[in-house]
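Researcher: Here's the sequence for the chain we discussed earlier.
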Amino acid sequence: MHVRLLGIAVVLTVLLLTGCSDSSSRSTPAQPPKPDRIDLIRYGQTVVTQVLKSPSSADFPSWGYKDDAYDVSEFGKDAYMIKGWVEAQNAFGATLREKWTVVRGGPQILDSRLRWAGPAI
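Model: Thanks. This is the structure I predict for it:
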């Protein structure tokens, strides 16, 4: 009798635990996490550095420089616009400060664009 009650208790416990598992994660695909501000700024700096005439001379504002040194905003679905400035040498060796804008779109980053607010450096 005790063995039978113990067996029923075990079966009920297993059924309860199985029934309480989170099945919602299996039915809908998980959304990728949104990138944080620092990751987006680093991405923008990387893109900008790749197009400079003298990448080693790139000097971006530090994180604590000013609150408005970088502007990060949503730009459509799963896309972000990152704005900032960089001081770097141009083809003649003169150091210039230029504003930049980079758009990062979607998880695959398919539509990245670079736009300068001034002349190319």
